Amino acid sequence: MKTTLLKSEDYTRSPWKNGGGIFTDIADAHRTDAAVKDWESLLWRFASTPIVAPGPFSHMPGIDRLQMVIGGRGLVLKAPGEEFDEREPFTTVRFTGEMEIVTELQAGPVEVVNLMARRGAAEIKLVALKEPGDQPLVTGTHLVYAVSGDCSIRLNSEEFVIPRGSTLKVELSGMSRLTFVSGLAVLGSIRLVG
């Protein structure tokens, strides 16, 4: 097990693929053979972003996406013949990057976290950690993002306190167990395949 604390002041910023806003990039991975780290070489990305006005989502062919509102409320994603309801915070929705999605804000701006992965390259999961309890962790990369205040967790028998806005990156070569002790966090899990 390898753990790395990613501090909020070290996160980078990058534009949305369609230029309509700015991501706060928390962690990502790209193909090792790629000359440039861009959308084409992306394997996965974990990021947060504000949505302050209704508008279209970026077109991302070949990308699977998970999204969760972590600040504000009232977000609905509208696609032809389909709707993704994120009116309540900490609800995970899953959709593909090919979908033509337009946002609807029913109660003002929101802050969301996104976990994206190249289809066929990684399996992803995004869950809210709100109550004390255990989460099994499989081989792969896990990101515990402290949303509001400091967050306390235990990995096997080791204790960690994650400062507000920071993320504990956990890289596992085998099964493990995360015990959520206190705070409010989002857990993003990535398992590379193939």
UniProtKB/TrEMBL annotation:
Instruction: Write down the InterPro entries for this protein, in alphabetical order.
Output: RmlC-like_jellyroll, RmlC_Cupin_sf, Uncharacterised_HutD/Ves
**Which protein is depicted?**
HutD family protein
Species assigned in the record: Bradyrhizobium rifense
